[in-house]
């Protein structure tokens, strides 16, 4: 069944996140101090292979698993949204050392304190939902 | 010790992450975890407060299942492959941490900030319960989480959605978002954490 495929892909992603230590607060701290290449290598090679793969999928007009045309919509153009939103997320990423994927991974690895981070993230999402009409997009 | 329980090098991890992303695209989805935060709020009844949470949840289940898989995958890796006792960090990183009272040999996460993982908590005094008793730690974890939630939803994506998926799809808004991620991360790492860490570790009272 399709739904188990998503679970299996998540499983693989979770194992990779943990084993490559990119979920580690230490690795994020090290990255933002430019003292190790590891994180840049992980993100950089993922983007390189990803960009190559997406280009092949688009150019070969490959259809997805349901036979539909693969259509990746362009992001809406905006400057404040991405820059300000990005900076705010970056502040949290630098402090807690986790982004949404790793939050789930760290909870799975037994770090129960990340439940508080998840709770905060849900609170932040709620605040965004309520205030977004007043924010520049 | 076999190779599998050591640090997986970047040239193994990066392409595997790309493979996960490409597989999702092939299944007609996109790669991005922060969408789940919106879905979880919607499940909790947040539509009461904002239309932002009035979404068709039937189109979102796959991503929650994916997140559940991540959680299970990390549990599996921790149990079967084992967690490292100490990371092989850059010496200058270790020095900067230890001078601020943060141990650099606590495995994946510094125990003074995050407590110990459930599997080891019997050996450690930095348990979740003790972390909860410190108002500063609570504020740090919840406040940091709020910045993550608000920021990723405002920017419309996180490290997976913008840095991996967006950049791979050559989207300039994603590049802008990633530049933002780094501005924010550099600011806290160089201006906030140096004075905050001694308080979190307890050497500055």
Folded structure, characterized:
The complex is a heterodimer of chains A (137) and B (205). By secondary structure, chain A is mostly helical. Chain A is 67% helix and 0% strand. Chain A is globular, with a radius of gyration of 18 Å. With 205 residues, chain B is mostly helical. Chain B has a domain of 82 residues. Chain B is built from nine helices and no strands. The longest helix of chain B is centred in the last third of the chain and has 30 residues. Chain B is globular, with a radius of gyration of 19 Å. Chains A and B meet through helix 1, helix 2, helix 3, helix 4 and helix 5 of A and helix 1, helix 2, helix 3, helix 4 and helix 6 of B.
Feature tags:
heterodimer; A: 137 residues; mainly alpha; 67% helix; B: 205 residues; globular
The greatest inter-chain interface is formed by:
A-B, 114 and 130 residues
Give the quaternary arrangement of the chains: heterodimer
Distance between the termini of chain B: 41 Å
Reported for the largest beta sheet of chain B, the result is:
none
Number of helices of chain A: 6
Please give the count of helices of chain B: 9
Model regions low in confidence, pLDDT < 50 over at least 5 residues of chain A: none
First-to-last CA distance of chain A: 39 Å
The gross shape of chain A turns out to be: globular
- Please give the number of β-strands of chain B: 0
Helix-strand category of chain B: mainly alpha
For the largest beta-sheet of chain A, the strand count, sense and barrel status come to: none
Q: Which shape of chain B, going by the Cα principal axes?
A: globular
The average pLDDT of chain B is 92
Helicity range of chain B? 55-70%
* H and E string of chain A: HHHHHH
Count of folded domains of chain A = 1
Q: Which ranges of chain B are low-confidence, i.e. pLDDT below 50, for 5 or more consecutive residues?
A: none
Strand content bin of chain B: under 5%
How many β-strand stretches of chain A? Answer: 0
């Amino acid at each position: 069944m399709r739904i188990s495929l998503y679970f299996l892909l998540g499983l693989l992603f979770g194992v990779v996140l943990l084993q490559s230590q990119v979920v580690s607060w230490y690795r994020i701290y090290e990255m933002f101090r430019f003292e190790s290449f590891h994180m840049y290598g992980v993100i950089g090679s993922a983007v390189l292979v990803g960009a190559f793969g997406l280009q092949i999928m688009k150019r070969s007009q490959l259809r997805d698993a349901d036979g539909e045309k693969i259509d990746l919509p362009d992001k809406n153009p905006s400057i404040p949204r991405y820059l300000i939103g990005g900076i705010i997320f970056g502040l949290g990423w630098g402090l807690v050392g986790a982004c949404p994927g790793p939050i789930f991974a760290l909870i799975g690895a037994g770090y129960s304190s990340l439940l508080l981070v998840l709770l905060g993230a849900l609170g932040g999402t709620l605040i965004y939902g309520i205030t977004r009409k007043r924010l520049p997009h | 010790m076999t190779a599998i329980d050591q640090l997986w090098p970047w040239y193994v991890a990066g392409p595997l992450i790309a493979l996960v992303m490409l597989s999702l695209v092939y299944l007609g989805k996109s790669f991005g975890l922060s969408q789940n935060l919106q879905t979880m709020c919607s499940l909790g009844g947040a539509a009461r407060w904002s239309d932002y949470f009035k979404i068709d949840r039937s189109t979102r289940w796959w991503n929650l299942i994916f997140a559940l898989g991540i959680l299970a995958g990390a549990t599996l890796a921790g149990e079967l492959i084992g967690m490292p006792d100490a990371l092989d960090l850059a010496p200058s990183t270790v020095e900067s941490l230890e001078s601020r009272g943060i141990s650099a040999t606590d495995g994946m996460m510094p125990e003074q900030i995050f407590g110990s993982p459930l599997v080891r908590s019997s050996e450690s005094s930095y348990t979740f319960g003790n972390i909860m008793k410190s108002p500063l730690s609570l504020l740090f974890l919840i406040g940091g989480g709020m910045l993550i939630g608000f920021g990723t939803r405002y920017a419309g994506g996180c490290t997976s959605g913008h840095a991996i998926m967006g950049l791979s799809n050559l989207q300039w808004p994603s590049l802008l978002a990633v530049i933002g991620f780094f501005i924010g991360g550099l600011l806290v790492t160089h201006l906030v954490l140096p004075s905050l860490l001694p308080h979190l570790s307890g050497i500055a009272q």
